[in-house]
Design a protein that fits this description.
single chain; alpha+beta; about 35% helix
Amino acid sequence: MNKTPTKHQIRRELQQQVEQFLEKGGEIHQIPRGVSGRDNPMEGLPTVFFNQPKAERTPIPEVMAALDSRRQKKAKTGSQRTAKPKEKIIYDDFGEPIRKVWVEE
């Protein structure tokens, strides 16, 4: 079973990757704190969910008829239940259990 790497191992591996990147000629640019990638960071984030018009649905009666027929088949087969026998305990005059009997209700 593979062990999960520790934080120290992950930091060491990241440091090695950064050093390899710099050795190959890569550059790291320092971005000042508070700078955002958005054009105007003072504006709120745009809402994506409710700004489009409601899409029209395409009626498909043959698919709905097939689904309804399957539902009716399930309802017919599952509605008939057989009575299951239940366990009943027979007690003596003093309330002590004597034996167990199966009774159909």
